[in-house]
Design brief:
By secondary structure, this protein is α/β, with parallel strands linked by helices. The chain folds into 2 domains: 230 residues, Type I PLP-dependent aspartate aminotransferase-like (Major domain) (Aspartate Aminotransferase, domain 2); 118 residues, Alpha-Beta Complex (Aspartate Aminotransferase, domain 1). It is built from 11 helices and 14 strands. Strand 10 and strand 11 form a beta hairpin.
Length: 366
């Protein structure tokens, strides 16, 4: 059994994907080809923003947005300790300080009620993460940010396509960034990412930053880097995108079946009212998680842990001098979360195998 069956997806769309790749090979426009511009507009329209700016990864999308806001040494950016390291890494790489705020005990997204207390005169941005495919509570975050005149960058690297009160992830705040890593809900066949915004000045700065800060050929207006989205990856995404809405529906169907049939003693994911998750992961919570995972592995059922160590306890952030108990909800979640196989092509027979193995694997109820 595959945790995420990328081969099944490729076989279904093989004709379209292969043709898209061949067109790029025939054109030899491997860098900044027309497919990149086309994809930016197609996905911006889907999200509901004016601008989409393609990048070489979700991480570069996040980092470049902070660079465009001139965030650096002496600045602070508020984010969550319960996420992949990229969300905080991009802050620290620029010399700024990641300021962690604990997560909501139900959704495991950043807890908006704790954000205001973390804001200081040094706070230059808020970076909420839309974890596991579900948008963070962006209205609450945006309200706080607006009051303090701070921009919000949604880390939508797991949530592209998700809905929040009738609007799409990545179009809910000052800017939204996503990832097209192959395992994401909309994935390419390598790395890729994009930033979405209605801010003309931000979009312009992002396009300069991704080209080594070039405002014109060999005229460098600011520091940047090589952050371009490859033409081949853009072409692959364009070929896959017409099927994306159908895949979201299939993910929801798989999630619904899991939800209806989880064994007792397993805590299901909590989807906030008004939200539609894209379930980039289907993550439950169990007691004695490590043993449960081993028991599942013994039955040849793949699982994953997203994420076993909160960011404030990572060695790279030891200089922040946090204690384990500083963010107790994140710490508890890290001991309990377990992601089950999830992809749009799962059959109910496959899910039944997962569910039966999970029932046999439980040690004690949560």
């Amino acid at each position: 059994m595959q945790f995420i069956d990328l081969q099944a997806q490729y076989q279904k769309y093989k004709k379209d994907v292969d043709a898209a790749i061949q067109r790029v090979l025939d054109s030899s426009k491997y860098i900044s080809g027309p497919e990149v511009t086309e994809l930016e507009q197609v996905l911006a329209d889907f999200v509901g923003t004016i601008h989409g700016v393609g990048f070489s990864s979700g991480t570069d999308s996040l980092k470049s947005t902070l660079m465009a806001w001139e965030i650096g040494p002496g600045d602070e950016v508020i984010t969550t300790p319960f996420t992949f390291i990229a969300s905080a890494e991009v802050i620290a790489v620029l010399g700024a300080k990641p300021v962690f705020v604990d997560v909501d005990p139900n959704t495991l997204n950043i807890n908006p009620t704790l954000i205001e207390a973390a804001i200081t005169k040094k706070t230059k941005a808020i970076l909420p993460v839309s974890l596991y495919g579900q948008c963070a509570n962006l209205n609450a975050v945006n309200t706080i940010a607006s009051r303090h005149k701070i921009p919000v960058l949604e880390d939508g690297c797991q949530s592209f396509g998700a809905m929040y009160e009738g609007e799409r992830s990545c179009g809910l705040s000052t800017a939204g960034a996503t990832s097209f890593f192959p395992a994401k809900p909309l994935g390419c066949y390598g790395d890729g990412g994009m930033v979405f915004t209605n801010d003309e000045n931000l979009a312009s700065r992002l396009r300069i930053i991704r080209e080594h800060g070039q405002a014109a050929r060999y005229r460098h207006a600011m520091l940047g880097g090589n952050g371009r989205l490859d033409t081949l990856q853009a072409a692959i995404l364009l070929a896959k995108f017409p099927y994306f809405t159908e895949e979201i529906e299939s993910r929801q169907r798989v999630a619904d079946y899991y939800m209806a049939n989880l064994p007792k003693g397993v805590r299901p994911p909590t989807i906030r009212p008004g939200n539609q998750s894209v379930f980039s992961q289907f993550t439950v919570r169990v007691k004695e998680r490590d043993q449960v995972q081993k028991n599942m592995s013994d039955q040849k059922i793949p699982t994953a842990i997203h994420y076993p160590v909160p960011l404030h306890l990572q060695p790279v952030f030891a200089y922040l001098a946090h204690k384990t108990a500083d963010f107790p909800v994140a710490v508890q979640a890290a001991k309990e979360v377990l992601s089950l196989p999830m992809h749009p092509f799962m059959t109910t027979d496959q899910q039944d195998m997962v569910l039966a193995a999970l029932a046999k694997s439980l040690i004690s109820p949560i």
